[in-house]
Specification:
Layout (H helix, E strand, L loop, with lengths): L13 H5 L10 H16 L5 E2 L1 H9 L8 E4 L5 H10 L3 E6 L3 E6 L2 E6 L11 H5 L2 E5 L2 E5 L2 H8 L10 H11 L5 H8 L3 H14 L9 H16 L12
Parallel strand pairs: 2-5
Antiparallel strand pairs: 1-2, 3-4, 4-5, 6-7
Length: 242
């Protein structure tokens, strides 16, 4: 691979990654205690899950972003067991949106139990668990969501009040050179224009790090774009994804 010029953001040292307290400085103690109770309850009940959201982004990039909750991802079949474990641990449970989200609340703090995409495109599948990695949150062992799935999930978060492009670009910047691009492209499937758009944005924002993306990914997606353009307008003239 060609040598990449420029300076990368500092990655966490092995000692920092092993630390049981490296998250304390950004999670207030009361909030941290709530998360610890939730995580310990799920671990004790042996319910499979991965930590996603801002904490997972931090684990992969070392970039801190304040968050108001804890995002945990489950396969759909595990959600009922997770809800029971959290209810028994003193959380108030409610189903927020039947196709993707439940919530566990404890006072002003809450944990999101996410088992699908908000737009209904997909459900959380075994690959989220299979490709996860070990981590520590609130002095509790957890599994961290894989960077590829995190990036794919964020491709679809582009709303009036929320846009996750920064997370996508930071993931490519910090771990793009070790991403499984084949798995990511395959997972993106028919939604490849969203991935191509973010890769072009990354190339613009971080021109010195273009080698973080495998060359064949650019070539394949640009070839798809050329073929798509050559076909002209879709027959579904009134159709929109916006």
């Amino acid at each position: 691979m060609p040598q990449v010029k420029g300076r990368r953001p500092r990655r966490l040292t092995p000692e920092e990654r092993k630390s049981l307290t490296h998250g304390d400085f950004w999670i207030p103690e009361e909030e941290r205690a709530v998360y610890k109770r939730a995580l310990e309850a799920l671990n004790a009940a042996q319910v499979p899950y991965v930590v996603a959201g801002a904490y997972a982004i931090y684990e992969h990039t070392g970039i801190y972003r304040k968050t108001k909750d804890l995002d945990l991802f489950f396969e759909p079949h595990a959600v009922v067991d997770a809800a029971r474990a959290l209810r028994d641990a003193g959380f108030v449970m409610r189903l927020e949106d039947s196709h993707w989200l439940a919530k566990a609340t404890a006072g002003e703090y809450f944990v999101d139990l996410i088992y699908g995409m908000g737009n209904g495109v997909a459900l959380i599948d075994p690959d989220w668990i299979r490709h996860s990695r070990p981590g520590v949150l609130a002095a509790t062992p957890v599994r961290i969501a894989p960077a590829e799935e995190l990036l794919w999930h964020r491709l679809f978060i582009s709303e009036r009040h929320r846009h996750d492009m920064a997370d996508i670009l930071h993931l490519i910047l910090c771990v793009g050179d070790v991403l499984d691009w084949e798995r990511l492209v395959q997972r993106t499937g028919e939604h490849w224009p969203l991935l191509l758009a973010q890769l072009l944005a990354f190339s613009y924002v971080y021109p010195g790090y273009r080698a973080n993306v495998a060359a064949w990914v650019y070539e394949q997606l640009l070839e798809r774009a050329r073929a798509d353009t050559a076909r002209g307008d879709s027959e579904e003239a009134d159709f929109t994804r916006g």
